[in-house]
TrEMBL record:
SUPFAM superfamilies: NAD(P)-binding Rossmann-fold domains (SSF51735). Keywords: Oxidoreductase. This is Oxidoreductase. Belongs to the short-chain dehydrogenases/reductases (SDR) family. GO terms for molecular function: oxidoreductase activity. Residues 10-189 form the Ketoreductase domain. SMART domains: PKS_KR.
Amino acid sequence: MHGATALGGKVALVTGGSRGIGAAVALRLPEDGADVALTYRGSAEAAEEVVAEITARGRSGWAVRADSADPEAVAGAVAAVAERFTRLDILVNNAGVGAVGPVGAVTREEIDRVLAVNVRAPYLYAQAALRHLAGGGRIVSVGSCVARRAAFPGSALHATSKAALIGFTKGMARELGPHGVTVNLVAPGPIDTDMNPVDGDFADLQRGFTALGRYGTAAEVADAVAYLAGESARYVTGAELAVDGGFAA
């Protein structure tokens, strides 16, 4: 346990929490005492497995289906979580999609979906959460190392969407600071997930761009999110924390 009462009594919403980094975050926050709701778009079974693990760790968990590309679903998910738990203290904007390919080959539909999920949804989730977040509230978004260093061809759309979260974080931090709400960003590097496995076709290339020479784990990203969500980070806002093994060094 990392500190069972650090987030005791707090309620967190993790978007895209059924797999990968989102699932790791959803399982990490209960270790500090938080109850956790998560959104998912695809597999209800995967989402319920995460909820079962949250419950096994002694906290309350709940999964709600919501496509982050749908503004109504975003607002509905936040409202449902706040009603079920009677409060909301921590928003983790993790849900994201990617489209890799040459600039000229990316379709308008791909552009619209990536920007809807990766840029518009975090803004809308934050808007909906604001009526519930009080002093000590936290917004933590999951960005990407490619926002600072687009090292690979085909990453322009993904880099564009994740770079937008830097401005989102700074602007929100400035506006919400007087209300006691902090807003921060975690920027992962190559992380071993089903979307980017450590034994994938391009893993060696990505690994070579890191200073540590290895992939990171979802748990290492989750630790950074937990820090920013907790009391230890009460004087940290508008910040970007790279968890990238030195990818941007």
